[in-house]
Design a protein that fits this description.
This protein has 21 helices and ten strands. With about 575 residues, the protein is α/β, with parallel strands linked by helices. The strands form two sheets. It has a six-stranded mixed beta sheet with strand order 6-7-8-3-9-10, sandwiched between helices. Strands 2-1-4-5 form a four-stranded antiparallel beta sheet, with no helix packed on it.
């Protein structure tokens, strides 16, 4: 994915604002309430000015008029506050719905990008884009939209009132005020890069924390706590320095513009005083004008005050759009009823694949598997066993060649249809925060209780589940934290047994199960694999003796192929692997 700096700021803001367009009604209501709020708010200085004029001469104070005016001020202030609250309610709803929509898009995007994007991007960084960056966007929009509505209306209305009261003083205000805009723009340009870098570092520190928390046992087992802390402190310090710089530069904007705007107030006071002396303005009018001048400059102060949030929002939006713009998986093929009745004859012809062009992994790979055959895949680490499984499931697309099932290319099938024909049990079990029943029925949500219990019995886990406090309704904590590794894997096995697919992939499926349970589960697997094409990846060679075909892979190629007895008699690479595992027993 391209770096956020390459996403131009002028393209980020319009694209971000387009997410707000579905909520035009709320935006229009917010604008109406802003006009009413500002209009009433600007009425107060006029009433106060009239009150001053009724009390400026000794002995001619009209207390009745002053009381009426002050009552009007109170009523106007209350109504103004109500409209301001309504305006904030509308803008808040726009922001919350917009951020919700952005998060939905990110989550949906996770399911549409190739696995290579997920595999090559730190997971903590992906999560940071959905959580931290989306929150930054929400905060920036909240401040920006609120200031935009009230600020524009305030500037236009106050300028109109000032022109009405005294044209020449109003021109002086208009001439001086733009200086604050130029100062804010200059400082914003300086601070922009720091906010982009800050968002990247937040993603980096989220990734580091995700790794550290997820591998706590390993960290403690190797006494890596201090080194981990040092690594965290280094990233945290870089984030502190970057955050401090971004806040320092952006915080210069507000006091700088306030200084310029104080010049406006000074100019109004001097010119207004001269006008009062010259008899062209009353004391109440100059008091009203000074209030309007402050109101006129206030939006400029407020906008520069929220520049840090707005800059953080744009930086976060750039990182979000960077991910949303990443390439999707190739288009899905049209479904066909025949794809749901596959028998499992698999032909792999001249397949080549590499994760990176610089390092070829599988080259000119050929294999034919007949329906119902059990194919075991063995070989040293990195030889391409799991890669072959990834290609069969279309988690990755081949570079060249073809893979066919029953004579139909897997690239002519929708990915979901292809994968529904496989049942897959991985070495690393995955469970989610739900009941045991829901976890077993993950691939078949409409399964009956009888089917779920039958699958659990096949996986030899029904007794264990029955002993849980709530039985099948017992809630499993995140990632199965309240179960042993073996228990988690048995539930994953039951999940596949429930789906009852025509083809199976078992990638070290019994690696976390004790020997006695493994024997029972292997028998269950044998029943389940009967008549089904099955691929078994195993390091313990004792588990694959009954396979019809054993493929011995090395460096992405099949170097030996045959049954267990045939390969032992051959005395080649497989024989050495097998004998090395059982030399101690012999």
């Amino acid at each position: 994915m391209k770096k956020p700096e390459r996403i131009k700021q002028e393209r980020t803001l319009p694209r971000l604002l387009r997410f707000c367009t579905p909520y035009k009604g709320s935006i229009a209501a917010a604008l109406v309430f802003a006009i009413l709020y500002v209009g009433l708010n600007l009425t107060v200085p006029i009433l106060v000015g009239y009150a001053i004029d009724n009390a400026v001469e000794a002995g001619k104070v009209d207390f009745g008029a002053i009381g009426t005016l002050l009552l009007g001020v109170a009523v106007t202030a209350v109504c103004s506050g109500v409209f301001q609250w309504l305006m904030n309610m509308c803008t808040n709803s726009v922001v919350y719905f917009t951020v919700r929509d952005i998060r939905r898009l990110i989550f949906r995007k996770w399911g549409s990008v190739p696995l290579s994007v997920i595999d090559t991007t730190p997971h903590g960084d992906l999560i940071s884009r959905m959580i931290n960056d989306a929150d930054s966007v929400g905060d920036g929009l909240m401040q920006g939209i609120t200031q935009l509505f009230s600020g524009i209306v305030m500037i236009v209305c106050t300028l109109g009132f000032m022109v009405y009261i005294n044209l020449y003083i109003a021109i002086a205000v208009v001439i001086i005020t733009p200086l604050s805009i130029f100062v804010a723009a200059f400082i914003t340009k300086i601070s922009r890069k720091q906010f982009v870098k800050q968002s990247e570092l937040q993603g980096e520190i989220s990734s580091y924390i995700d790794e550290y928390v997820g591998q706590q046992k390993l960290v403690k087992a190797f006494g890596y706590e201090q080194a981990s802390m040092e690594g965290f402190s280094e990233i945290n310090e870089r984030l502190r320095v970057c955050g401090q710089k971004s806040q320092f530069y952006s915080s210069l904007a507000n006091p700088s513009t306030r200084f310029v705007n104080s010049l406006v107030t000074s100019a109004v006071t001097i010119l207004g005083s001269l006008s009062v002396i010259g008899g062209t303005m009353s004391v109440g009018s100059i008091a009203t004008f000074i209030t309007y001048a402050n109101q006129y400059t206030k939006p400029f102060n407020e906008v520069t005050g929220v520049i840090p949030q707005i800059q953080a929002a744009l930086a976060g939006a750039a990182r979000i759009f960077e991910f949303l713009d990443s390439e999707d998986m190739s288009e899905e093929a049209e479904d066909d009823p025949s794809f749901h009745e596959l028998k499992g004859n698999i032909d792999i012809e001249h397949v080549s694949f590499s994760y990176t062009p610089q390092r070829p992994l599988i080259t000119d790979f050929n294999l034919h598997v007949s329906s119902g055959q059990r194919v075991a895949i063995v070989g040293p680490t990195g030889c391409g066993k799991t890669t072959l499984i990834n290609l069969l499931m279309r988690f990755y697309d081949i570079n060249s060649g073809s893979i066919k099932i029953d004579g139909k290319s897997i690239y002519d099938m929708p990915r979901g249809t292809l994968r529904s024909n496989y049942g897959m049990v991985l070495q690393e079990s995955w469970l989610y925060n739900a009941s045991v029943r829901d976890n077993i029925a993950y691939g078949k949500p409409d399964a009956t209780d009888e089917e779920i219990i039958a699958a659990a019995k096949q996986a030899h886990i029904h007794h264990f589940i029955s002993c849980l406090p709530e039985g099948y309704d017992t809630v499993i904590t995140e990632d199965g934290g309240n179960l042993s590794q073996g228990q988690r894997q048995l539930i994953c096995i039951a999940r596949v047994m429930l789906c009852d697919p025509p083809m199976l992939i078992l990638d070290e499926a019994t690696s976390s199960i004790d020997t006695r349970t493994e024997i029972r589960v292997q028998k269950a697997f044998a029943r389940m694999m009967k008549g089904r094409t099955s691929f078994i990846v195993a390091h313990r060679l004792s588990t694959i003796r009954e396979a019809d075909i054993i493929l011995v892979m090395k460096d992405g190629n099949i170097i030996e192929q045959g049954s267990h007895d045939e390969l032992i008699r051959l005395g080649g690479f497989y024989s050495k692997l097998f004998n090395s595992q059982f030399a101690a027993a012999g």
